[in-house]
Amino acid sequence: MTTTTALLHAALRLAEQGMPVMPLREGKGPMGNCRACRKNVCGGRPNMKTPGTCACAAPCHAWAAATTDPDVLTSAAWAGAWRQAQAVAYHPGGAGLTVVDLDNAEAVAWARQNLPATKTVPTTRGAHWIYRGTLRSVNGVRPGVDLKSTMAYAQWRGPGTGSMAALPEAVRALAVKKPAAARPAPCTVSATAPVGGEECRHRSPAYLVRGIAMAEQRIEEAAAAIHTTVYRTFLAVLSAHGRCGCLTEAHIKRLFTAAQEKGESLRNCEDAWTNARTTLGM
Fold first, then answer.
1. How far is CA 55 from CA 37, 51, 59, in A?
2. Radius of gyration (Cα) for the chain, nearest Å?
3. Nearest to 235 by CA among 211, 267, 253
4. Who's near 240: CB < 8 A, 6+ residues apart?
């Protein structure tokens, strides 16, 4: 059985149990939106926070794509996504569940001391503690602890062990607390544009505009090797536009935003930008 077939079969089994599922690409991120739905210009799925009218057949809009419909999961529109998939995710809120995502050993130790026992699923660095009941999803409620329920997805890592308990007040209380540390906004930019100094070879400003738009599209449509795609795109942009001084921080912001929407961290974006400049001697 191929990886693609195994993932699809696992998704269908979960769907039979009433768990809305979806494919995850490399890096545990959702599949990117199709061209018609890019940046939610379609209005978004009807079950998203801001109801829309999108009826796209592709696995668009991240967690909102999760479904229990086997005809959708096995449709031609989803076939390409399953070929690219590296894992299966599910929408906990859609299944009436909340996942307490414990990201490290310290967080697991805290949960054992402060939360009632429930179904536990080991993860790479910590564990998922799963409870019956839903609440709003909040990241960083305390060091190493995220809550995933409504408007979120969690990677399926197996059935786990133990009996599932009802969502306790201790977890509900976490959801109303201010996150321990604010995470950087996707549009944060700390990189600077090259000073330039060479004569601009562009025939018109539209050349730069098209170049940035094409770079954004290349990043947004990357289905795998996201790190490499981001670096190579930055390299191409700097090679074409970085020596004449036309490139601005507004342009960099657009590139960083596209990369972060694909799951890249701000640190990875900064490193890719710096490495591209170093390669070009800027």
1. 10, 12, 11
2. 21
3. 211
4. 211
Q: What is the pLDDT of residue 190?
A: 56
| C-beta separation of 19 from 95 below 8 A | yes
8 A C-beta contact, residue 232 and residue 275: no
Residue 143 is classified by DSSP as: T
Tokens of 45: 């799925």
Q: How far apart are CA 145 and CA 107, in angstroms?
A: 6
pLDDT at 240: 82
Name, in order, each residue with C-beta under 8 angstroms of 53's C-beta and a sequence gap of 6 or more: 42, 43, 46
> From CA 9, how far away is CA 13, in angstroms rounded?
6
- Residue 89 CA to residue 248 CA, distance in Å, equals 38
The DSSP secondary-structure symbol of 65 reads G
Lowest mean pLDDT among 56-70, 83-97, 193-207, 235-249: 193-207
Give per-residue pLDDT as tens, 93-109: 999 999 999 999 999 99
Mean pLDDT of the chain: 84
- Which of 223, 220, 179, 215 is CA-nearest to residue 84? 223
